Amino acid sequence: MNITSSPPERTHLRLGFVALSDAAPLAVAALRELGARHGIAIELCRQPSWAAVRDKLLSGEIDAAHALYGLVYGVQLGIGGPQADMAVLMVLNRNGQAITLSRPLADAIRGGASVKDALRTLERKPVIAQTFPTGTHAMWLYYWLAAHGVHPLRDVQSVVIPPPRMADALVEGALDGFCAGEPWHAVAEARNAGGTVAYTSEIWPDHPEKVLACRRDFAALYPATARALVRTMLDACAWLDSTAHRTEIVQALASETLLGVPSRLIEPRLVAADGGAARALPVRFFDGGAVNYPRVSDGLWFITQYRRWGLLDADIDDAGIAASVNQTALYRDAAQAAGVALPAERHAATFCDARVWDGGDAAAYLAGFEMRA
């Protein structure tokens, strides 16, 4: 029997997610029962925070999850919590995140003030939230602040808050800003608590964001199941390439069981490019498979940032770690069976500070940063 046609060892899978618009592929897969043709059924399990996603992945209460790319690497490296061998099965989306600051700060920046000068008007350390200590949002926020001459560890108080709490905390005055996913920036603007000042696609155009993650032993014990899950999610991501389909899934995402946010606040930044902002790139889910390949260099980039900000100083094989986490062989098997094209292994990206990352020389790349921990 061809390995890619082996029946899944597990047929019922519990998938964790946090209330964010980019959980759309999981919603599509479950609601449209896309796993049926691949021999699996999906049960969605909403989680209150990324810490809960981590804990339930580790305990086995959920089998896989919509997860922050950096969450997977933080657990793999044992940074700030339990260590476990983790697996990135595929990328679920690119772009679609943002940085929102309180209304006075956002107005000052829109009026021409630099980010550094605007934050100095507070005459105290700004309190800016992200969603997980090693997560994507922490890394986008730190990179953006540093690019604007603001040290993210010394000049700012960075705190962790679950995404659904962001807008409330900004309204209450507990925060001066936050970096998270949608629809919470749209919610903050609708409540007149803040304004979006940067889109993460401006920091790293077409950056990887959420991934399909599981423990590595799950992928090893149930490889046919993992491949079936990847094929199901590729089908869901491809379905989301249609504007009409995105508009359709917004109604489901608005439900209390998924996001619990009015569809009018979800739709603009999911269907269009972050509400039609000229400088933002749209959230991407598939694009013929260009979105989904778990490129090892993407994982390695997160490790460079952990070293940059003092979260990691161990003498380990960074590239080897990334190669073990990102399940490129499993993904290739699933994608080839599905007829999905595989992109190039190497890809150069130019960041907002004009630095270029291609995964080639991580040590030299890291040494080139003037602002570090």
From TrEMBL:
A Pfam family annotated for this UniProt entry = NMT1_2
Q: Which GO terms describe its cellular component?
A: endomembrane system
Q: Which keywords has UniProt assigned to this entry? A: Cell inner membrane, Cell membrane, Membrane, Signal, Transport
Subcellular localization: Endomembrane system
Q: Which organism is it from?
A: Caballeronia novacaledonica
Its main subcellular localisation, reduced to a broad class, is: membrane
Protein name, please?
Nitrate ABC transporter substrate-binding protein
What SUPFAM superfamilies is this protein classified in?
Periplasmic binding protein-like II
